[in-house]
Amino acid sequence: MSLTRGLDSRRDAAGVYPPSFCGWRLLLAVMGITELAVLLVGFGKPGIPGLAWLGLASLYAQWLSLFCASGLCVTSGWIARLSPRGAWIGIWLLTVLLAVAFSHAAWRAAVILDLDLSLKDPGEFILETGCAVGLMALAFFRYLLMRARWRAELLAQSEARVQALQARIQPHFLFNSLNTIASLIPVDPENAETAIEDLADIFRGSMRRADEPIPLEQELQLARQYLDMERRRLGERLDVDWRVEELPGDASVLPLILQPLLENAVGHGIQPRPQGGRLTVYGRAEGDQVVVTIANPVAPPESHRGGHGIALDNISERLKLAFGSRASLVTYNNDEQFYVVLSLPYVKHTDR
Questions:
Q1: Do 219 and 130 fall into the same domain?
Q2: 322: domain range?
Q3: Transmembrane region positions (predicted)?
Q4: Mean pLDDT confidence for 227-240
Q5: Closest Cα to residue 311, out of 161, 210, 207?
Q6: Among 129, 152, 175, which residue terminates a domain?
Q7: Which helix (H) or strand (E) element contains residue 256?
Q8: Is residue 13 scored above 80 in pLDDT?
């Protein structure tokens, strides 16, 4: 699943829409459920079903399921024009109609080829196929609906947590930044003007939707502007070492994925130390992954401020919703350094 597909699970206020059935993962799920249904029907018959019956039933059922899934894929554009409720009802009715059409064609083909398949009356055969597919589709679509609602709810909760985190962070950061700008105006007005522009860009970036991907180069630019603001405040106590030349700027990432990590590094690793320290940001593309590592000094025990947990948990949840198991956020530390390693699938950003 690509990042775009993962983030296209955005839903309108009325409900959630069904998937398009064009993805190979969903097709594999359909084929697996179909084969399970064949086995259940076979073992529900008197005696043990023979390999011939299982093979023929599986062949028919798999072709039937792929035919229905292909029809849903082809008509997904039309389905998307309906309301969410209408879309779910529409794909169920369409699935039943496709099953009826396929079973009728299969019956005709058997008659033309003079195959002795011990088929029942054509009307009864088509009716049984339509009813079986209708019941299976009803159960499967119900599962997809509940899963989509669950994911939409998690996404909404994650976005709410992002907004809550920003609401908690922004006043503190804003007051510090304004005080820094006020102190710069009489002695370095040009730097003060640049600081105001950086502050505006940072807050403009924080107003983006949490699930709207942006190019990595934009996220890095906002990260640089944030650290520039902190360097104006902390002065020589904050030393930043950027090693991001090998990062692909066109990689698609979630907004505000780096800034909370950098804020943790400054707040928990640099600021509590009277002498400050070096914050290092380095990354590169490793195969089909983009890896960014942030390192900061470990603060003295007496200045411990409660850890990095809130932002890390929030970002981990956002990564899980957008990428599943293909993304990770790992932390580790030794006596001197604290490390955060962010790994994302490399997907090129496209404007939509």
A1: no
A2: 213-345
A3: 21-44, 50-74, 86-105, 125-145
A4: 90
A5: 161
A6: 152
A7: none
A8: no
